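INTERNAL AUDIT FORM
Audit reference: QA-55
Scope: verify that the stored structure record matches its stored sequence.
Auditor: D.O.
Record contents follow.
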Amino acid sequence: MSNQPVVIADSGMVCGVGLDAPSACAAIRCAMDNFQETRFVDKGGEWIIGSSVPLATHWRGRTKLAKMASMALQECLQHFATVPSEIPLFLCVAERERPGRMDGLEEHLFGEIEAELGYQFHAQESRGIPLGRVSAAVALKHARELIYEKQFPYVLIAGVDSLLNGATLGEFEAEDRLLTSQNSNGFIPGEAAAAILVCHPSLVSASDRGRLLCQGLGFAQEEATVTAERPLRADGLTAAIKNALADAQCTMGDLDFRIADVSGEQYYFKEAALALTRTLRTRKEHFYIWHPADCIGEVGAAMGVVMLVVALAGSRKGYASGRQLLCQFGNDAGQRAVAISRYETAGA
């Protein structure tokens, strides 16, 4: 992909700590959260803690997903005086096998989002990507293909998800993966929507507000998944990192920091640490890892796009730990993905 980079030009986000990208990213930078008791009870009789999006009306289900996604997309497109006609949209949603997954995400959510926005996305090229946290990386791959092979000037990528429903929480609690009064090795559930606008580098000058170029992508499969009874060696994530480094034509030592979708479970933190020891071959004084889930909880398919929004904000505001970063994505089915990006400004 180093020969075919794409630019993350703009963003939008709605989550438990902010209803737009600037406020949400500022809260995440300050390590603020909005974790509160939900209306769900765990096996110990205590309220489950979660991070919900505080909208003006108490929408639920697919209606709330459509509202959140349309808010993020509207913010992402706000700098267009007139929105270009028929932009393709890749919509990242929960895996089909996810417990408690809402019905009609691929069939109806697109139309509901379009109705909210009053805008039609490209009918043939738009699609849903039901791969959970890995969806964002797959969407970047498809966006590159549309931009370079079919000459689309812009592509939208959005992710929206909510784990705050009874069936989902019940199943994850039964598997001892939810943070409750009975289990400390688990995640806090949340909900969010995020969107990014992707385009060809020629459409965004580094002298404007700077530009975040996605230079490399890598994919692999992990056999020792979070629910498998197998020893974890992080083979999948290690392979995805190596593939992305080869695609970007750089080494792990060239990178400055990482952003990960880890959300509280020891398995994913261990995987990230193992993969680092197997790919970093030069000494670095610091190699920080950011994990936005600390502030917004586990937000499923929205997390991958959230990470890219956070990366763009940190780069533009100047508090990122360097110019080159690695984003790592992984879902419970074992699919692993890595995106390597570089922030460029005028003269750099």
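Auditor finding: record pair retrieved intact. The CA atoms of residues 9 and 197 lie 6 Å apart.
Action required: none
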